[in-house]
Amino acid sequence: MRKAIKAAFFGLISMAFVGSAIADITFVSWGGAYTASQQKAYIDTYSKGSSITVENYNGGLGEIKAQVEAGNVTWDVVDVLPDQAITGCDEGLFVKVDQSEFINDMVVPPVSDCVVPQIFWAYTAFYDKAAFPGKKPKNIKDFFDVKKFPGKRGIHTWANALIEMALVADGVKASKVYEVMSTPEGIDRAFAKLDTIKDHVVFWSAGSKPLELVSSGEVVMALAYNGRIGAAILSEGKNFEYIWDATVLEQEYLVAIKGGNEAEALEFMAHASTAESNAEQAKYIPYGPMRKSSINIIKKGEPWFITSSGNIDILPHMPTTPKVLKRAVIGDPVWWADNGAEVHERFGAWKGS
Amino acid sequence: MNQTQTSTGPILTTDGIPLKVSLKKAERINKIRAFLLVLPLLAFILITFLVPIGDMLARSVDDRQINTVFPKTFEVYKKWDRQGLPSEEVYKTMFFELKNSEGYAVGKASTRMNYSKSGWKSLLKKSKRKFKKIEEGPFKEKMIATDKKWADPEYWLALGQMVDPTTMGYYLNAVDLKYDSSKNIVQQKENRRIYNKTWIKTFKVSLLVTLFCLLLGYPISYLLATLPMKYSNLLMICVLLPFWTSLLVRTVAWMVMLQQKGVLNNLLVMSNLLADENRFQLMYNQTAVVIVMTQILLPFMVLPLYSVMKTISPTYMRAALNLGASPMHAFYKIYMPNSVPGVSAGCLLVFIIAIGYYITPELVGGKDGQMVGNWIAYHLKTTLNWGLCASLGAILLAMMTVLYWAYNKIVGIENIKLG
Questions:
Q1: Global confidence as pTM
Q2: Which phi and psi (to 5°) does residue A78 adopt?
Q3: Which residues of B154-175 are buried (b: 16+ CB within 10 A; e: fewer)?
Q4: Cα distance between residue A210 and residue A149, in whole Å
Q5: pLDDT over 60 at A9, yes or no
Q6: Which among A57, A67, A90, A336 is the top mutation candidate for probing chain B, defined by the most B β-carbons within 10 Å of its own β-carbon?
Q7: In B107-215, where do the E strands start and end?
């Protein structure tokens, strides 16, 4: 018996060594329907040798910085927000990549030298149609109007997009939002508008939470990542409706972490950022591809989105259609990289007061 | 008996060495052996506990990130009288140090500079790119031409906070103070004052949780200690089962129970005890944090209490009753004082765990239930302001040390009993 245990023990140890000899990639993303779409679109189809482990996180550069500083990098490819893509690249946490392959095919130029294109997504307000049998909320003003549409609102725990939306609801033009935000009075104005819904908000931090809040009736309207709303409508048959007004359009990128399995990571990122991969992802989640040619692939391929009861046209659910873009705020990651810390502290003070 | 030896000379062993020396020798080997046995643990504690704490304390005052990039600028900066704009010399030194420094170092420095004045980050990044084309002065005008922020004294004044390689700035930040441009300590802008409030809230929540744990835990432990084995075992399992259940599962279960359209409110509305529009707001606020944390931390109160109560002999109470005390009086005079070591151990344990709690306030805290731990996590993950994280952590550590010290003075640490 003892021998058997010993043998098993050494077997396990040697397995651990053999296991680490093959360079695997750890791919870190946001979980839920979003990671599922990445899995189906380009992780399952990846066949260049390295096997890919998927992990979830809730954003932020803290863990990456800790790994790089400690010299113990376990994440290889990470899905990051644009302001973090800028900071991480500036501070040398990410590997610089060769962008010649896609740089002329992108809808907007990449935010830094370390990124490959992923998707456009948007903070979007939505509601359950059942919650408003009569008049339905139409724009962001209605979201901020608790007299006209009583009930709780679900909003996220950080300030991004809330400032922009509050200003649009207060009458600022979507295209002028960042101009106003660059003045101290502009920020005051946004917080004054936020004050009007303060006693009616429920906060969320995980992307799946606003859907639960609206489904359970805990809130009547919420902000969420548009793709999650779309996936809930299309795949789960939820009775949700978007409020396509003052949606805040954000970019999403993949980066390779310095000190990880860099070569394998870059190879995988090249695969994950092809026009085909970008388009393929839209079969499973309605986020907008960042490559122009991906949009053409989808247009030709409609109905593109896969559900259990047949395919559905995906373009109407995208945050990048001209109709939506006309009323959208294009998120400015540089502004947030600059002013994020200060505004977040103020937002924290606002939450707690 | 033949005990006539009255001399005070040392007792000798058979080979003539004093017994004490010989004993010491034998014990030394044992001591070394014992030390070798604890050595792995000692090394473990050193590496995983003391070194990180030391590192944290160092980070909370370290301000070299930026001083390594702009050392000369700071030297000439110190001569500036802080009126209007700095001289050409300051601009010129800044220009060359920025232009010639390594990109990543500038990236890190700009993150730091951005804490004192928002906007430094993009200013440095853009300027570094544009400066490549500039070869000669006058630098002041040329720099201002590339970006008019260079003509904004606010940016220059903000540098004044960073001139020294060590700083108390992070500690000030952690209590809503800050340095002004000439290093006087002033209050933080009103709409950014959050930490003092958070400290008070953290203390309040931790105290409430400790109090409720004690109120709930004391009777349970008493039952556990006094009931016959077959009932008390069952009760013990009821205490331990949630203890073994995942923290997240329990927290989420509470969310289902307490939210406005949750089980509790639904039951009350269904049984007509509550009007539909008056549903209790029990989730996503401070109340929720206190309720959920009390349930989660209850075992940490019950277990030490139980182990102490188990050792209180029932004969004490019987004796008291026998001598004519009423049951209440006997309990108050005899049982309670005997259980104090368990009470203090439990309270200290629960309070210490509660004060640094993070995940439960994050999930159920909503807008007014966020504690210090949540701000540490936020700065750790999002703003990368690890200096501030370190100072918040160090203050927590100091508070615990003071608490422990005060406790030792008042109750005496030898009175703590975990079993």
A1: 0.82
A2: -130, 140
A3: ebbbbbbbbbeeebbbbbbbbe
A4: 18
A5: no
A6: A90
A7: 177-179, 185-187
